[in-house]
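Structure (tokenized):
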């Protein structure tokens, strides 16, 4: 059989006409073929690591490089220490030390706006005595003699500063409780809350968590008949502060009160779950929540109160049975895993008469609670508090107002975020 010779035609393709050396990018000619150029000298070999990150020589490669950044490995953050773990997420910047008056300006330096402060410009405005013989001497000398402030004034300023301690966690819950009734628990709640609200700029609310009918609403003039049960039923509708104000009453001191049920026909007790639901709503609108607990430790709402409390205020009377009941309360708390709250608690001895015929050793009683808790405050007897009606701070005796300010300062020491 005759075989025919198969002739394979030559395929014309630009690749077959190019030299063996290839360029980094291959493009098909669209116009007339360019004149062959003299071969360029071979570039020096680059390191392999740099070759992977060298941008392409194609047109528009610079734009692509700008659009897609090379991957960079994230730095591993160092582990935070235990002291930094409990620090608040935001801390205000520290104020620089400001020079007082033009005398503090160094010679040869240019004065700034910080040198124009009230101390140097307003003569006699600062350190003016508020009363007593110091004020008489100050006015008699037309302000030329400044005896300075009394120790009482400086002490009050220190207590106010402690009471104004910012709430580091955003919301702080204080539980006021007692095992024995009739010792001034509700009165202490209002006195503490009114003092904090009057010296602070944020919102303070007192909640009546008594499972039965509480008496917290009797201590202020009511602005609404709504109760904590109404707020609990309408909590899904509360979105703003003006919504929650429909359920609270505000005293002249700016303290707000959330009253308990006053209807005797109500048979449903305020439970632990109810308190937790109410507390979840209040923490969005108030910085401090003071809870007036019911008498005893085993009622329905107490477990919810103690589970959320940041600080305790234990109220007792200066008597043998009242002191033993208060000490038994501390024993119960320590036996039920609340020892940290006991150590940071403040004990209040109410209605201490200065010239009482009682033979109870108050100093020994105070030392007993001071060994177990953080602070002990004596609130003296006050005729205005004995009335059992609405409490007005302006009608209290100076010693009683000073005692409540000392209580507010002691409670304010716990606002820093770390239990003392």
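Design, position by position:
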């Amino acid at each position: 059989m005759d075989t025919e010779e198969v002739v394979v035609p030559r395929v014309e393709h630009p690749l077959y006409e190019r030299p063996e050396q290839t360029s980094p990018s291959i493009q098909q000619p669209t116009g007339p073929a360019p004149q062959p150029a003299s071969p360029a000298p071979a570039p020096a070999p680059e390191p392999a690591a740099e070759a992977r990150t060298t941008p392409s020589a194609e047109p528009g490669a610079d734009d692509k490089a700008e659009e897609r950044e090379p991957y960079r490995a994230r730095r591993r953050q160092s582990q935070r220490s235990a002291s930094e773990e409990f620090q608040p997420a935001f801390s205000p910047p520290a104020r620089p030390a400001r020079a007082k008056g033009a005398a503090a300006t160094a010679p040869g330096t240019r004065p700034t706006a910080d040198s124009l402060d009230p101390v140097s410009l307003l003569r006699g405005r600062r350190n003016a005595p508020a009363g007593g013989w110091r004020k008489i001497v100050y006015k008699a000398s037309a302000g030329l003699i400044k005896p300075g402030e009394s120790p009482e004034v400086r002490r009050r300023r220190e207590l106010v500063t402690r009471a104004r301690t910012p709430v580091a966690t955003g919301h702080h819950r204080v539980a006021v409780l007692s095992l024995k009734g009739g010792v001034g628990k509700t009165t202490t709640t209002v006195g503490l809350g009114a003092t904090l609200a009057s010296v602070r700029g944020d919102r303070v609310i007192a909640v009546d968590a008594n499972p039965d009918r509480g008496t917290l609403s009797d201590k202020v003039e009511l602005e609404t008949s709504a109760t904590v049960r109404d707020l609990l039923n309408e909590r899904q509708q509360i979105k703003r502060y003006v919504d929650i104000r429909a359920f609270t009453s505000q005293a002249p001191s700016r303290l707000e009160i959330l009253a308990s049920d006053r209807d005797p026909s109500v048979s449903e007790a305020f439970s632990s779950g109810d308190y937790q639901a109410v507390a979840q709503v209040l923490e969005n609108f108030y910085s401090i929540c003071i809870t007036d607990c019911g008498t005893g430790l085993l009622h329905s709402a107490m477990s919810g109160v103690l589970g959320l409390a940041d600080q305790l205020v234990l109220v007792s009377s200066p008597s043998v049975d009242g002191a033993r009941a208060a000490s038994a309360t501390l024993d119960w708390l320590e036996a039920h895993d609340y020892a940290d709250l006991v150590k940071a608690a403040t004990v209040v001895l109410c209605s201490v008469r200065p010239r009482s015929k009682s033979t109870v050793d108050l100093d020994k009683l105070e030392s007993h609670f001071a060994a177990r808790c953080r602070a002990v405050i004596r609130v003296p007897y006050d005729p205005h508090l004995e009335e059992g009606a609405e409490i007005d701070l302006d009608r209290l005796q100076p010693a009683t107002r000073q005692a409540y300010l000392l209580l507010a300062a002691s409670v304010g020491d716990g606002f820093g975020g770390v239990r003392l």
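Reviewer-requested clarification: Residues 122-163 form one domain. Residues 241 and 353 are 42 Å apart (CA to CA).
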